[in-house]
Amino acid sequence: MFEVGVMRSEEVEEVIHLEYDVLGVSPFVATSLLPVKKKVIVARVNDGIAGCATVCWNDRFEIASLAVKKEYRNAGIGAAIIEKCFEVARDLGFDSVWLETPENGPVEFYLSHGFCVESHVRNMYGNGVSGLKMVKHLS
Ligand SMILES: CC(C)(COP(=O)(O)OP(=O)(O)OC[C@H]1O[C@@H](n2cnc3c(N)ncnc32)[C@H](O)[C@@H]1OP(=O)(O)O)[C@@H](O)C(=O)NCCC(=O)NCCS
To answer: Does CATH number 3.40.630.30 belong to domain 1-76?
Structure first.
């Protein structure tokens, strides 16, 4: 069982650790240095946070990260977090949600949640790995 909500101040450290553990970087920390507004959506289980997404926006709304701990995957947590991201975007008045993912990332997962590929970017991360910009149009 899990519940999805907005990160509380006492959960900041756990989110940073989770992002580093799963992604090797912390988009939450990185976006803190940018002139954007942001929120973190978390999925809480009994023993803490199982997954999170950092979302940020100025002129457009982006999912900067999505990460679910290995032991909690394939239980619908990623789907629930992404649906909550859509809700937050709608509540803020956005009609689309953007993200970037490596070509070898969970592209199928995003397609199954209504994202489409907007463009391909070669060497997106400066390490030779190409990426995709994806967009979901909210109806
Ligand atoms: C992608 C991720 C967030 C999905 O979280 P989750 O809680 O397991 O997702 P759900 O349980 O809601 O959905 C699972 C579905 O997504 C699919 N999926 C998960 N990871 C996938 C991947 N890398 N490629 C393709 N499909 C993937 C599963 O096969 C499953 O499909 P099914 O429902 O048809 O069986 C999680 O696997 C993760 O944190 N991955 C590592 C970090 C990552 O790649 N983040 C995105 C950076 S752009």
So the answer is: yes
